[in-house]
Amino acid sequence: MRVKVVCVGGGPAGLYLSILLKLQDPSHDITVHERDAEGSTYGWGVTYWRGLLDRLTAHDPESARAISDNSVSWSEGVARVGNLTTRRPGDEGFGIGRHRLLELLAARARSLGVRLEYGHEIDPAAGLPEADLVVASDGVHSALRTHHAAHFGSELRPGRNHYVWLGTTKVFDTFTFAFVETDHGWIWAYGYGFGPDRSTCVVECAPDTFTGLGLDRADEAESLALLEKLFADILDGHALIGRSPADGSSPWLNFRTLTNRTWYRDNLVLLGDAAHTTHYSIGAGTTLALEDSLALAGALRETDLPRALARYERERKQALLPLQSAARYSAQWYEDLPRYIHLPPEHMFALLGQRHSPLLPYVPPQLYYRLDKAAGQLEALRRFKRWLGPKVARTIHARTLTSRK
């Protein structure tokens, strides 16, 4: 059955949904509206993992191949703490420039007959566009969601630490962590490549360090100069590249975790960051946006729209639970960095890899390290750890919900 779909927001989620729906039925009338000009996207590189690439290949081999061909990969991590360095093997990860990813998805969508309207902002106060389905894929600041915030039950919870998203001409060939001690506390960076001549560098620190270093008062040039000096060992003389916000606001942010009680209202549905966010330290934002698109396209095979949207919401909320838990504990690990930073580097790095665990905050770090090492050798301990972790997570989650009432 031919349907008319309007996607508001030209990020990865909206573009990929338009591709999937056109592949399901070329007669569908699909338009993507993006308020910014084409090619003016923000951001540096985004990360994803082999599992996502396999799922994309199963649904649209052409766009998956283009994404893979334009990505870089790594299979180990490096952590530098002061002047000490340690390495660990890991799963294969991929990086691709956000700008390049959007170019590839836009080209694929156009080739299938999707209309892309750039420089076109939808005003929710004027009513929804005429369509069978309107998709709010306009990000964490979604105007469509905000206009109906009471219905969606939107909640934004800010994190404690400050972070800034930067680029650099230094090309990292591994996923690199660097922790630097200053007179005002620790500051750290995550670096990963996304192209032949660029990498992403995310810098984070606690509030006292942020103000102690004067980053709350520094302009962008002063901030970049200070950060280049602090992280000179991993940058090898390369520059950091900022992105001055158009409104003149500070590029430093506090990550905000977004949740919504429900994801749809009549024929309006939330997708990607408009529906949920997970802390950037687990590197899952783009993956979750594309997986939302896969789930929504699959649900829309049903002819009954309310039933399809209810199925989509139910499936994605369930799939998000473990990732939201992992993101919550990952953010907490960095907020509790003094608890781990003075461990031997190989121990600290091992616990960095275990930061998603709900057990870690409640077990002395050295004891957890020894137990985790033993669990890697004893199947019975591995099973016990897999059983206990989710139980602790559910208990803590239930207490958190109760405390908010």
Descriptive account of the structure:
By secondary structure, the chain is of the alpha/beta class. It contains 14 helices and 16 strands. It has helices at 12-24, 50-59, 61-69, 98-111, 143-147, 149-152, 207-212, 220-230, 232-235, 285-299, 305-335, 345-353, 365-375, 379-404, and strands at 4-8, 29-34, 45-49, 72-81, 84-97, 115-118, 133-136, 155-158, 162-168, 175-182, 185-193, 199-205, 240-241, 256-259, 264-265, 268-270. The strands form 3 sheets. Strands 3-5-4-10-11-12-9-13 form an 8-stranded mixed β-sheet. Strands 6-2-1-7-16-15 form a 6-stranded mixed β-sheet. A hairpin with a 2-residue loop joins strand 10 (175-182) and strand 11 (185-193).
User: Proportion of β residues?
Assistant: 15-25%
C-alpha geometry = globular
The biggest sheet, with number of strands, parallel, antiparallel or mixed sense and barrel status, is:
8 strands, mixed
Mean pLDDT: 91
**Could you tell me the radius of gyration in angstroms?**
22 Å
Overall SS class:
alpha/beta
